[in-house]
Amino acid sequence: MNFTFEIHSCLRQNVRSLGIPYSGSAAKNFYMKRTHHCNELRPAHIGQTITLSGWVHSRRDLGGLIFIDIRDREGRTQTVFDPSDLPKELFVQAASLRSECVVSVTGKVRQRPAGTNNAKIPTGEVEVGVVALEVLNMAEVLPFPVDDPEIASKVNEELRLQYRYLDLRRPEMARNLKLRSKVAIATRSFMDEQGFLEVETPTLFKSTPEGAREFLVPNRREAGTFYALPQSPQQFKQILMVAGIEKYFQLARCYRDEDLRADRQPEFTQVDIEMSFIDREDIYALIEGLIKKVWKTALNLDVPTPFKRISFEEALNRYGIDKPDTRFGMELVDFTEDFKASTFKVFSGAIANGGVVKALNAKGLAGATQGQLETMTEYAKSFGAKGLAFIKVEKGADGATVEWKSPIVKFFTEAEKAALTTKLAIQEGDLILFAADQWLTACEILGKIRLYCAEVLKTQGKLVIPADQFNFLWVIEFPLLGFDREQNRWYSSHHPFTAPVADDIPFLKTDPKKVRGQHYDIVVNGVELGGGSIRIHQPDVQKTIFEELLAIPPEETKLRFGYMLDAFKYGAPPHGGIALGFDRLIAILCGTPSIRDVIAFPKTAKGTDLMTDSPSSVSAKQLRDLYIEVKVKKPETATPPAA
RNA sequence: GGGGGUGUAGCUCAAUUGGUUAGAGCGCUGCCCUGUCACGGCAGAGGUUACGGGUUCGAGCCCCGCCACUCCCGCCA
What Rg value do the Cα atoms of chain A yield, rounded? Predict the structure, then answer.
């Protein structure tokens, strides 16, 4: 009671000294400042008078006694309004509070009565006996609950994005943002310890229409010219190496105007890194150190290093994908030799055409439904295959012997069957799936099916992957170039600045397909976390790549990359770098499949922001200033003339 | 650009084969309640079944269109 008086008289004094009339507890500009966060109070605080500020998380009104849990960013604490200690009006005010009102509460920390501790929250041994309440703001009834994690996590994402400020109040979302901040800071401090400089690069850049579609920004000062938002700071960071920065990093915002996915947003953040006078090993060691520190900071886990390395070719051969999830087996097995002379023409014919036969054993999936087999067949067809060959290994009709149920087994010889049994370790209950096609296609078909089978086995409880298992992997020795049949020309598998492996340089002009790039991807649990390369630092090699292999006309090369080739003439050090997808990194650490859950204000699958309703149309004057004429117009919502 | 899924009360979901007045839990409003923490009890309000057409005696359900969200393919040097 006395304390209440003290606070109010103190407020009054403060207000008077500023010459502002004080209107009691309704004063808007001054309030009781918090002394503790809502996750802080423990038995050690018993007896202290403290102040909490935050939101009404939940209210339990027992009539003669009211419990209110106050929540702030850090946690929550139970406060008790007991009419025997309080002025009546204060108790009435407490009864009128509803979820998410903003309050400051002052009271005495006390032990909870025996048997009423709440083991679910860290502050559950104590409570605050309220002596003063200040309502800082009322809240309307919410469009969805933020206090119940079970319901809140199921709320339609559309609604969550529209009221993102409410969604972010949920402790689960607050935790994600907190972890993101911690990791960003750990990254900066690690890079600083390693001698890197954080340099900001422009986000108003030049259009370089290789690769992803760009966001364009019209230039008001010269009609018909545009900036582009960078897809990555690639060129700038290489120029910084020419500039002698030696070790650069940046938490860089990047923009790509491509369709979205759960793990792709039109703007995203990458940990962008570049170093001079290094080779691939230096990058591996640096990133392994960074990951170690990040995992320790975020999850208190010790990540073993160095990471395993696997070549692109081996990754495809064993897992059918260049970002393998190695937390489970089900590897692909090659049967090209075994079926070379098979009477089953689908197999032997593919081999005669220069293709391969591969198979995988989905252990325990013999009971696959017709629908599941159809889904897998669709995957195969999407790669151009005619169908999907399979064998269900099940108990025979007699209940004792094991039978291979499949439309194709009748074509197999005993030797072929024996090869399958041995190499795939076939047992009752297995499902064997085949791909017979060109090497890459066959691998990719089974790679896709392998992941699908794992999903099915997971839902059936036959495959269990611990949540804290992180299989890091370097994928290396990618082909430098791919060939586009339709356009009849070579393209960079990654980007045109990637240096060829030194031993392969002679093949550049004779057999480009054979040239491996000094490129590396860092993969964890089937997710591509990042990638990079040692760059070309000799202008003549770079020119060869641009003009002879990528067949970009010299004038165009000059127009688009001239400044870079120029820079390289004046002493470019050997250099290389890497970029890690920061949003994906945080999503993995948070255990969520969608990066929207780790971005404060993400966009929907159509690239809109439901809270601000952007993108939106602009005024005719704005368009005129930018020399822009809009040809296709969205029908405007007609404003009815005023009555 | 293409394929799949979803859309019913403020929220999460039901609604048999197309058949009476579209239900439940939570939330909300009112009343009661001094140890709750998913408080409890009683009562009540709340619906253009996303939207626009169509078929039918009759549509939440079937058909066509359209919008939004979502997952995937293409795309993402």
Answer: 32
Query: Is strand B less than 7 A from the beta carbon of A141?
Result: yes
Q: How many CB atoms lie within 10 A of CB A203?
A: 17
The structural domains of chain A, ordered by start, are 2-137 (2.40.50.140), 235-310+472-598 (3.30.930.10), 328-459 (3.30.1360.30)
Q: How distant is the alpha carbon of residue A196 from its chain centre?
A: 25
Distance A619 CA to B53 C1' (A): 35
CA of A311 to C1' of B17 (A): 59
Does residue A485 lie within 7 Å of nucleic acid chain B, judged by its CB?
no
- Contact partners, residue A479, CB within 8 Å, separation at least 6: A312, A493, A513, A515, A516, A517
Point out the nucleotide closest to A156 (alpha carbon to C1′): B69
Q: At what angle do helices A171-193 and A280-299 cross, to 10 degrees?
A: 140
Positions of strand B less than 7 angstroms from a protein CB? 1, 10-13, 25-29, 32-40, 68-77
The dihedral built from the CA positions of residue A48, A50, A52 and A56, taken in this order, carries a sign that is: positive
**CA of residue A60 to C1' of nucleotide B41, angstroms:** 14
Of A425, A436, A355, A349, the residue nearest A390 (C-alpha): A436
Q: Are A452 and A388 in contact (CB under 8 A)?
A: no
CA atoms within 13 A on the CB side of A367: 6
Q: Which residues in window 409-448 of A are less than 7 A from strand B by Cβ? A: none
Q: Which residues contact A521 (CB under 8 A, 6 or more apart)?
A: A322, A323, A474, A475, A476, A478, A528, A530, A531
- CA of A64, C1' of B32: distance in angstroms: 11
Residue of A511, A534, A512, A530 whose CA lies nearest to A521: A530
Q: How large is the ipTM?
A: 0.94
**Identity of the residue numbered A198:** E
Q: What's the pLDDT tens digit per position in A68-106?
A: 999 999 999 999 999 988 899 999 999 999 999 999 999
Question: Which of A212, A188, A208 lies closest to A198, judged by CA?
Answer: A188
Under the banding of pLDDT at 50, 70 and 90, the label for residue A547 is: confident
How far is Cα A496 from Cα A502, in angstroms, rounded to an integer?
16
